[in-house]
Amino acid sequence: MSLQDIEIKSEYRSLLDNVAKDFYIPLLQQAVSYKRAVGFFSSSALVEISKGISALVKNGGKILLVASPYLSAEDVEAIRKGYELRDNIIKKALVRELKEAKDVYEKDRLNLLANLISDGILDIKIAFTEDENKMGMYHEKMGIISDDFGNKVAFSGSMNESAAAMTLNYETIDVFCSWKGEQDRVAAKENAFASIWNDCEPNIRIIDFPNLKQEIIDRYKKATPNYDIDKHEFGERIYVLEEATKYRLGPDIPRNVQLHDYQIKAIDEWEKRDYRGIFDMATGTGKTFTGLGAIARLSERVSDKLAVIIVCPYQHLVEQWVEDIVKFNMNPIIGYSASSQKDWKRRLEDAIRDQKLKVRNKEFFCFICTNATFSSDFVQTQINKIRGNALLVVDEAHNFGAEYLSKLLSEKFTYRLALSATLERHNDEEGTAKLFSYFGEKCIEYSLDRAIEEKKLTRYKYYPIIVTLNDDELRRYSELTYEIGKCLIKGKNGKVKLSEKGKILALARARLVAGAEDKITKLEEYIRPYLHDRHILVYCGATKLLRENQDFTTVDDEDLRQIDVVTDLLGNKLNMKVSQFTSKEDVEEREILKREFADGDTLQALIAIKCLDEGVNIPKIKVAFILASTTNPKEYIQRRGRVLRLAEGKEYAEIYDFIALPRPLDDVPSLTVEQMKKELSLVKNELCRAEEFARIAMNMVEAESVLDEIKEAYSINDNLITFEEDFDYGQ
To answer: For helices 517-527 and 557-567, what crossing angle results, to 10°?
Structure first.
């Protein structure tokens, strides 16, 4: 394709047209050269100039940028009186305009530009007028975009390359195309730019500031550039020119997304059940896309007159959803404590009002938030104001079986969809029953076994590594077990449960097992063959649970103790390139870490807490060392599934699972019956997880031989390996 294949208007007005999406991005997608004079130089101008250039860069293109310094009255007076060298004053004025990025998009865009300067793809020169020693500002706004076929588009006008000009001021640009009989106008603009760039234009001076370019690199270059920033900010559709003229106003499945048969069948079943149901799908099998496809199906059925509320437990899950939501032709309102949309509350109020008043083309809206935001008084008040069709989509829906969330499952939502890889709640039949009662039956049950068999997830090898408590740890474990035994009380349903004191003791015991000293010793032994590899995850235990009013799980000093020890071992003693990945890192920092981890050049291993439970998407993980023990099937099934996501060059994954036992197996025969009884619950629960992992591993026989040694030592019959209540709170 060429520039001639794009529908180009002769004029664009900032309050009527989305200039980035309608003009820059489509044209630059086909371009190999972009020459731009932008008026004043600023970080805001750099951000705006970045829109669309990713595609040009992929075409092997080059960018030339001319800008003028914004000089204050004091700057001009200082130059006139010769207080300071002109170039120094200009340089200070330029650096003054390099502001901090306002959000993750600006960070990515400035990082991209800094990388392009560093790679010699983008060059910047500073222009100003000078006549008889009187200095002024060069303020012409124009540009020339050229493709590989000799086609050129020139444009000029009052529009500055700044956020304010793009969105607030009423400004225009005029456009001229070389193939439309406007060759002379195009040539005039191109000659003028060449004269300015080469410092041949009368009364216009050009300064090439290498220090300015280095300042931009030092200030903004943070990581590998995100060349998909336009897709993330504006949505996938901006790259599909065939769709640029007409498409539905509501959600729609992109043409470059082909749902699998099982996904379509799930949506069909959901439709048959009056748009209520559950998608029970293993991690990594396209649960999000299936949910978005269901939203598109329902919205089309109700003529795009629909309020969609999507709820996720964590901040970063919301952001992962947003990346996909925009691909499905939706512009979501994003609500959580640290949302980049600072005015999300106003947006939600406006959207609900517009739907209620049936404002044309505004009867559809999508609001996505965290569990904590959803349960807030503000959001609940707004939901109660909805008068039209409403759909509730809950990701990781097992969380909504908890009492504080289940009471918010309102009849306001005629349409309902629950998504989860493990809907059944651990040790909570009542909470599980609430979920089925509200959302309906399962429309699909797509297991991890099937996902591996059908190559939707990768195969894996499983290595159970036996670790044991040392003498001090075993003594403390026995003391805690004894104290926990005195804290059992009967609940309302007659079932035995722990008192509040018992829960604290159980948490202390869980910490003890999670932080067993032998895990570090064994980790050093088993990670040595991978010292020069990459895409490694070391997963540490966290014992804190997500609180009702939180968007992310916090970690404390106890949780960080093990991760700090592991970091010291891998980073200092073994000289590996590692980084921690915890709730201390915000959404933007996590995205940078994920990109660096995927590249593998500067980061070999992530040392993480909670990421495998929270739905963090890191497909490149090839080797996982799971130090954290858990008896909760929901957690360990999710942990395994997230390691098995498909990725280029990943033939299979390897999982090293640290099996915590009270003592070495050689010491077990000397135990009394009473001692054996106290240890069996921990041993059986560890075996319960390990048996599930080994069952479909590529090296099943090898893995099960290790487990057979444990069963033989403790005289455990295969038929007796079931989960036993061990009051394991939060490992």
So the answer is: 30
Between the alpha carbon of residue 22 and those of residues 5, 30, 109, 246, the distances in Å are 14, 14, 19, 13
- CA–CA separation, 694 and 370 (whole Å): 35
Query: Tokens for 554?
Result: 């916090």
Give me the helix-helix angle, 315-325 and 287-301, nearest 10°.
Answer: 60
Specify the pLDDT at position 488: 86
Distance, CA of 547 to CA of 566 (rounded, Å)? 27
Place of tokens 């191109």: 190
Contact 405, 399 (CB under 8 A): yes
What is the residue type of 166?
A: M
pLDDT digits (tens, 9 = 90+) for 508-561: 888 888 888 999 999 999 999 999 999 999 988 654 443 445 555 444 455 567
Using the Cα atoms of residue 514, residue 516, residue 518 and residue 523 in order, give the sign of their dihedral: positive
Q: Which of 412, 456, 405, 457 is nearest to 431 (CA)?
A: 405
- Strand (E) positions, 77-131? 122-131
Tell me if 130 sits within 8 A of 137, measured CB to CB.
no
- Tokens (6 digits) for 411: 């009849």
Residue 656 has pLDDT above 90, yes or no: yes
What contacts 666, CB < 8 A, 6 or more positions away? none
CB of 604 closer than 8 Å to CB of 577: yes
Question: What pLDDT is attached to residue 528?
Answer: 96
The 10s digit of each residue's pLDDT in 66-96 is 888 877 767 766 766 665 566 777 878 888 8
- Average of per-residue pLDDT values in the chain: 83
Count Cβ atoms below 10 Å from residue 227 Cβ, excluding itself: 15
Q: Residue 157 contacts by C-beta under 8 Å, 6 or more apart in sequence?
A: 141, 171, 172, 173, 174
Residue 176 contacts residue 145 (beta carbons within 8 Å): no
pLDDT given at position 196: 87
User: What's the pLDDT band for 164 if we cut at 50, 70, 90?
Assistant: very low
**Cα within 13 Å of Cα(93), Cβ side:** 24
Tell me the residue type at 292: L
User: Any residues with CB less than 8 A from the CB of 356 and at least 6 apart, and which?
Assistant: 385, 386, 387, 388
The predicted pLDDT at position 728 comes to 41
Between 47 and 694, where is the model more confident? 694
Q: For 252-283, write each residue's pLDDT tens digit.
A: 888 778 899 999 999 999 999 999 999 999 88
Residue-range domains of the chain with CATH: 3-236 (3.30.870.10), 250-452 (3.40.50.300), 458-720 (3.40.50.300)
Amino acid making up residue 633: P
Write out 52-64 in H/E/C secondary structure: CHHHHHHCCCEEE
What is the spatial distance between Cα 692 and Cα 637, in angstroms, rounded to a whole number? 9
* Residue linked to tokens 């008889």: 132
